[in-house]
Amino acid sequence: MDSKNKGLIFLYCVLIFLLGACSPGEEAVFLERWSPNEDQLLRITIAEPAALPGCDYCRRPFFVSVYLTDKTWSAEKKIISTRLENDGVPFGPSNIVARWTGEKIALICLRASSLPARGYRILSKDKVSVVETEGC
């Protein structure tokens, strides 16, 4: 095997290692909100990214997932999966907000400390639809 092939193999190993290090870790439930009729549940989870070796203070995005459960469904559905920057301070109630504005309409707001807020409107009447909104 020549040195060029060894270099490529080493590069692939490093890339695979870095991709694994940037992937989300274990999901933890951040909050849950029942719909007004209590027939649907929004569950928001946060997954901290895996640590990069030798980079204890690197700023890494967290992964936020939103699941919707309906009492008539056999399983919950993941309807939003996105990243949210974190400045090292744990997320609090002002960073991630969820509320129902109607029986089948919910709003989600994601606010990173120093970035513009992102909002999502979820309509779950007949078919689930998610629309990104400007601001929150």
Structure keywords:
136 residues; mainly beta; four-stranded antiparallel beta sheet; elongated
Radius of gyration: 19 Å
Unreliable spans are none
Strand order across the biggest sheet? 1-2-3-4
Beginning-to-end CA distance, first to last residue: 57 Å
Biggest sheet record: 4 strands, antiparallel
Order of helices and strands: HEEEEEEEE
Please state the overall shape, judged from the principal axes of the Cα atoms.
Answer: elongated
Percent of residues in helices comes to: 10-25%
Number of helices: 1
Strand content: 35-45%
Give the total of beta strands: 8
Category by helix and strand content: mainly beta
Mean pLDDT: 80
Give me a quick take on this structure.
The chain has one helix and eight strands.
Question: What can you tell me about this protein's structure?
Answer:
The chain has one helix and eight strands; from the N terminus they run αββββββββ. The chain is elongated. The longest helix has 19 residues, at about 5-20. A hairpin with a 4-residue loop joins β5 and β6. The model has no long low-confidence stretch (mean pLDDT about 80). With about 140 residues, the protein is mainly beta. It has one helix spanning about 5-20, and strands spanning about 25-35, 40-50, 60-70, 75-85, 95-100, 105-110, 120-125, 130-135. Strands 1-2-3-4 form a four-stranded antiparallel beta sheet, with no helix packed on it. About 10% of the residues are buried.
